[in-house]
Design a protein that fits this description.
With 318 residues, this protein is of the alpha+beta class. Among the domains are: 92 residues, Immunoglobulins (Immunoglobulin-like, Sandwich), CATH 2.60.40; 95 residues, Immunoglobulins (Immunoglobulin-like, Sandwich), CATH 2.60.40. Helices cover 18% and strands 34% of the residues. It has three helices and 16 strands. The strands form four sheets. Strands 1, 3, 4, 6, 7 and 8 form a six-stranded mixed sheet that branches. A hairpin with a 5-residue loop joins β12 and β13. α1 runs antiparallel to α3. The longest helix is centred in the first third of the chain and has 28 residues.
Length: 318
C-alpha cells in the first residue's frame, strides 16, 4: 500500500513551510514596492572639461529692460548656470543641439556675465569668457512744478502787492531700489511623478505689494502674492517624468519686473525592462499561492482515499 511508502506528516510539514516562505516573500516584495519605486545611483566621474559659451548678448551692449535672455552653446547633457557679478542668476539644461537659453535679471550699471556648466553631481566645468553689458533703468517720473498760493497771481504788477509766496517744491522722486529674485537652490533633481516639488525664492528690493507668477514648464502656472520682501514658497506636482524649465516672474507696485529661471528633473518609475528585475510588483509570485493550494488539496485527497481504502480492507472481527 502507498501509505507504507509515503510520509504524509513530512508532506504536510513541507507544505506548511512553503506557505510560510511564500507569505514572507510576498510581504517583503510589497513592502519594497511601497517604500520605493525609484533606484538611486551615484556614479563618480571627472568634472566637465568643456566650457559653455555666451553668444548673446555681446559685450558692450546696453539695455533699458532688466530682464534679458542669455543664449549660448554647451556640452549636451549638462546644466548651464548664469552668474552675474558673482551671484547665481538662473540656469537651464543643455539640449540635444548643444544650446541653452536662460532668462536673467540685470542690475543697474555694469553686469559681468559668466556661464558655467555643471553635471548632475554638482561638478563644475571651466568658466566661460566674461561678457560685460550695461543696464540703465528708466528715469523716475518728473517732480511736479511748484504752484503759487491760491488767490495770488505771480504776474500781478501793482505796487502795493506783496511778494508772491510759492508752495514748497515737492520732494524729488527717487528711483526705487532694484527688484531682485534669487534662490540658494539652483535646480531640483530626483523628484518622482506625483511628488510635490517645493521651491523657496528670496524676493528683495522694489515696492510692495508683489505679484509672482510661477510657470512650471508643463503648461501650468500659479500666481502668488507677497506684502513684503523675503522668502516666498510654492510647490507643484508633475504628471510625467522629464526635465522642466521653471520660470518665476515678479512685478511690484511700481511695475518693476524681475525673473528667475530654474530646472526641475522628474524621474520615471523603475521598470523591469530598464533594470532587468521586478519593479516592486509581486508579479509571478502571486501564482505560487494557487499552486500551493492545489498541491495541498491533492495531498489531502490522496490521504483521504487511502484512509478510506484501508477502512474497507481492514479484517472484520468475529
Amino acid at each position: 500500500m502507498a501509505h507504507h511508502h509515503t510520509s504524509y506528516a513530512a508532506l504536510a510539514f513541507l507544505l506548511l513551510l512553503s506557505f510560510v516562505l511564500a507569505g514572507a516573500a510576498t510581504l517583503s516584495t510589497r513592502a519594497d514596492s511601497v517604500s520605493s519605486s525609484i533606484l538611486s545611483l551615484t556614479v563618480t566621474g571627472p568634472p566637465p572639461a568643456t566650457a559653455a559659451t555666451i553668444t548673446s548678448p555681446t559685450s558692450g551692449q546696453t539695455f533699458t529692460d532688466a530682464t534679458q535672455t542669455v543664449l549660448g552653446t554647451c556640452p549636451s547633457g549638462l546644466f548651464v548656470e548664469i552668474w552675474i557679478n558673482g551671484s547665481f542668476s538662473g540656469d537651464s539644461d543643455c539640449d540635444v543641439n548643444d544650446l541653452y537659453n536662460v532668462l536673467v535679471t540685470l542690475t543697474p550699471g555694469e553686469d559681468d556675465l559668466i556661464a558655467r556648466d555643471v553635471d548632475g553631481l554638482g561638478q563644475y566645468g571651466p568658466d566661460s569668457a566674461t561678457t560685460v553689458v550695461y543696464y540703465t533703468p528708466p528715469p523716475p517720473p518728473p517732480s511736479p512744478s511748484p504752484s503759487p498760493t491760491p488767490g495770488q497771481s505771480p504776474s500781478s504788477k501793482t505796487s502795493s502787492s506783496k511778494p508772491v509766496t510759492l508752495k514748497p517744491a515737492a520732494a524729488t522722486s527717487k528711483s526705487p531700489s532694484p527688484l531682485k529674485l534669487s534662490s540658494s537652490q539652483h535646480y531640483y533633481q530626483g523628484a518622482s511623478v506625483g511628488q510635490a516639488v517645493p521651491w523657496s525664492v528670496n524676493l528683495a528690493g522694489g515696492t510692495a505689494p508683489y505679484t509672482l507668477t510661477w510657470e512650471w514648464g508643463d503648461g501650468k502656472s500659479d500666481t502668488t502674492f507677497a506684502n513684503s520682501p523675503g522668502i516666498v514658497k510654492d510647490q507643484h506636482n508633475y504628471a510625467k517624468p522629464g526635465i522642466y524649465q521653471l520660470t518665476i516672474r515678479v512685478q511690484d507696485a511700481d511695475r518693476q519686473q524681475a525673473a528667475l529661471q530654474l530646472v526641475v528633473v522628474v524621474n520615471g518609475p523603475v521598470t523591469s525592462a530598464s533594470l532587468g528585475q521586478s519593479s516592486g510588483d509581486p508579479g509571478n509570485l502571486v501564482a505560487v499561492w494557487p499552486l500551493l493550494t492545489i498541491t495541498s488539496l491533492v495531498v489531502l485527497s490522496m490521504w483521504l482515499g487511502e484512509h478510506h481504502k484501508l477502512t474497507l480492507l481492514r479484517p472484520v472481527s468475529v
